[in-house]
Amino acid sequence: MATFNVQIEKLDANNYSNWAADIKYLLLDKDCWSIVTGTEEIPVLDPDKGITHRDLKEYRLRASTAISTIYLNISPEFRKIIEGTEDARVAWDSLKKFFEPDNRSRHMQLFSEFLACKILPGENISLFAAKLLRLQEKLKGINHPIHEDYMCFQLLRYLPSRYDSIVQSILRWSDDKFKFNEIQLELVAEESRLQVRASDNNEEHIEAHSISSSRKSCRKSLVCFHCNRSGHFRNKCPELQKKVPSVSSGFDRIPSTSQDCGRSLPDTSPPNPSSNNQRRRRRTKIQNTNPSFHGNMSYLIQACTSEVSKASDTWVFDTAASHHFCKDKSIFNEYVPISDEKMTVAVEGVTIPIEGKGIVNLRFGHRILKFGEVMHSSKLNRNLISGPRLDKKGVVFEGGKGELRVKENGQLLFKAFLRDGLYEVNPNILNRKRVGFSANSVQKLDARLWHSRLAHWFSYHSEYREK
């Protein structure tokens, strides 16, 4: 008879129950278990019954296999328990008495294990029922069998909450149907149904996720006609939405970026501005009539059209204006005329034309800052520095006690001081254009030309010559 070479865990102080089950089936494979249990006795020679010396030799061989299998699968420290015996049945009984003595302590231990037996997370119903049946066999082996009703109660007691409905239904069964095997079959069927439902929910989730992913991929194929980027249409373009300023009170400290203070602060698109809570809010709007000008621009200008006229060198630092503004054309370093654009200030319906835009260089101490996209309108009474434009470049604003400090990377760029409710700045103007008398061509300098230019002192020199 063919046998399998199977290795099992050796017997130690903590695994007798599992070891006994493993060694039992190992001996069954070797056709030796009946010798261990005593159901097969040593044969007696009887020619009339057909029992020969060959049968006796075969029995002794199987008996030797049984005792050797038991002995070799015991840890060395416990082999002393069965040393000196060659009877497999005696060795088996000795091990059982040593590891599972038949006393009240053992009975209490088995009963406690039965009451504490619970279904583990992820364990199926069939395995849990098998554990209960094994404990029942152990209690039955010590002449303390568990009634079937208590077996059923223990099977239903610790089930997960998803089995609550089926448990309530089983508890209403009649006594004839309320059996351990019937309950096990009903719970296994319910377990299969719950697994199918969980699988369906998982498939629906995967399908929903795939649909969402396909929508995202389709969205990526969209191209904006404004910024030429994918993922959105022109009406959802973030760059166009940034051009609509929002007004908030107070100063926000913006983290500064690494940028040289003397470098140019070019402006591309107006950011979302925040307003000064110490100033009245007035909203202005650029009305575009030039097709080449993209979008509308909005402005918040404080007292730029007030009746009190200020010098051109005074600039107002406004944290709510979306553009820099200058009224003096002569201080522009670069200038581009603009037509068909007007700025409508929401104060008594005043309309101010935008005449051009360009670059202005302002000196603050030893630093020269270059302001780009500065709008020009000679109708304004104040120049304007846009806070959001600087905010876009990582500049930090710190205010308090009538003073506003504008910093970049921790270094002070300039200060603005509170006067008449506005923060005013007095920079040094660079590259101011001055009127001279030089000409590209030489003209005939007659007396009439000099008289028209220098009549106020020409007569004085004429009188001096006459003397």
From TrEMBL:
Residues covered by region (Disordered): 246-293
Domain of life: Eukaryota
Keyword Zinc: yes
InterPro entries: PolX-like_BBD, Znf_CCHC, Znf_CCHC_sf
Classification via Pfam families: Pol_BBD, Retrotran_gag_2
Keyword terms: Metal-binding, Zinc, Zinc-finger
One MF annotation (Gene Ontology) recorded for this entry: nucleic acid binding
CCHC-type domain segment(s): 224-239
Keyword Glycoprotein: no
Protein name per the record: CCHC-type domain-containing protein
